[in-house]
Amino acid sequence: MRILSLILLLLIASLTGAGQAAEPSKKKKSKISKTSPAAGATYEKNKDAMAWAELAAKTHHLDVKWVKAQISQARFIPSIPKLVMPPTQLNKKNWAAYQARFIEPRRIQAGVQFWQANEALLLRAEQIYGVPQWLIVSIIGVETFYGQHTGNFRILDALSTLSFDFPKDHPRAAERQAFFSEELAQFLVLTAKEKIKPSSLKGSYAGAMGLPQFMPSSWAQFAVDFDGDKHIDLFNNKADVIGSVAHYFKAFQWQSGMPTHYSVQFHKTQVDMEALMAPDILPTFSVSSLMAKGALLEGEALEHKGPLALIELLNGAEAPSYVVGTENFYAITRYNWSSYYAMAVIELGQAIQTQLQTKQGPTQKQ
Fold first, then answer.
1. Catalytic residue among 143, 182, 183, 327
2. Predicted local distance difference test score (pLDDT) of residue 87
3. Topology of 23-90+149-227 in CATH?
C-alpha cells in the first residue's frame, strides 16, 4: 500500500511539477552570470500567447486584463529552447565526478554555517514533519549552495518562452510544453496571491524558484508559511524554506528512522543483474528476493522490512558502484529524478553532519 500511495503522488507530481522541472536537463548547473540573459521580443503581439492569457485567466479566476498585461511584458529568451533540449551526445555518467562536484569543502562549510544559524527552525521542522535536519540542509546546499546560485532568468520570461516557444524537435515536446504552460499559470496565480510583481522574480531557465528551487506548482502544493506571517517566501525567509522542504518530503512519504540505503555485494556466479536492474530505482524487492537473485546483504540490511531497489552508479570507464536503496532513497529522487542526485544529497548531508557531530551528538542514520 505504501508503494501504491507513492506512485499516486508521483503521478500527481508529473502533471504539476515537483522539486524543479522534473526534467533531466535541469541538472545542468553552470556558473550563474550576474547579468540577465539576452532577451528577444515581448509576447504582446503573439496571438497564441494572448489567447492563452484569456483562457488561463478564466480557468484560474484571475483578472484577464492583468494576465494579458503580464504576458505582454514577458520576453522570449533565445537561449532557453537550447537549454531544454537533450544533449546531442550522451557522455557516460560518472558518479565520482558528480560526487566531487557537491561533496567538497566549501559546500560542506556553508552547510555547517546554515545549520548552526537555523538550528531551532530545523529542529522544529524535524519534529513536525519527521524529516531529518541533515536532509533539509543538504537539499538546499545541492540546489542553490544556500542561496548563492538561485538563477538569473526572469521567471516570467522563462516560463513564457517554454510555454509559447518550446522546441518542436524535443522528443517530448507536446508533454513538456503542456507542463510549462501550467507552470506559467501557477506562477501567475502565486504572484497574484502574494501581491508580487511577476517580472520581479528570477530563477532557473526552467522556472524553478528560491533556495529550494520549487517549480510554481510545487510552491502551490508543498510550500508552507512556517513562521506564521501569512506569506510564503522561498527567496528570503529561511523559516519558509526549511518548513517547505520538510513538508515536501513528508508529502512523498519520508519515513522517520529508516535508512536511505545499504551496501551490497554480489554472488559472482549466481547474480541475475538483468532482473535486479529491471525495476530501476523503484523499490520492488524484498530482502529474500534480492538475495535469491544473487545480491549479498549483511548486518541491519537483513532486518529491513520494506521494499528495496538496486541502485547502479556508473563511474565512466571504471566499474560501477552499487547500493541497495530503500523507500527513503526513492523519496529523495522525487525531488530530482536521479539516483546520482539522491546519493549526492545523502553524502553531503553525512559530511555536514559529521562536522557538527561533536556539538550535536550522535549522527542520525542515513
1. 143
2. 80
3. Helicase, Ruva Protein; domain 3 (1.10.8)
